[in-house]
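Let's practice the habit of predicting before peeking. Look at the sequence and jot down your guess about where helices and strands might fall. Then scroll down.
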Amino acid sequence: MAQPDDERLTALAARFERDDPRFAQAMRAGRPSPPREYRRRGAWWALAVALAVLITGVVLADGLLIATGLVLAGMAAQLFDPHRTRGRRPPRR
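Done guessing? Here is the structure:
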């Protein structure tokens, strides 16, 4: 029975390495980083830019900048979703 468990653990480790190499390397080092789904640095930058554009549009009373800021804020909010797919196909049923 030990052999099938070892094979499953090896397959799981290989899948970890393929899906998120940074997380797998950090696990080997003993200092795990958050998985890719929970890294949101880019989302915070996008939200900051969106808010800057929105505030600039309000201060200058420019409707196009306000609309652009709102659209960018909506796009930035989508980046906070931990279950979004990154160009991957949804699993088949």
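How did you do? Residues 6 and 37 are 27 Å apart (CA to CA).
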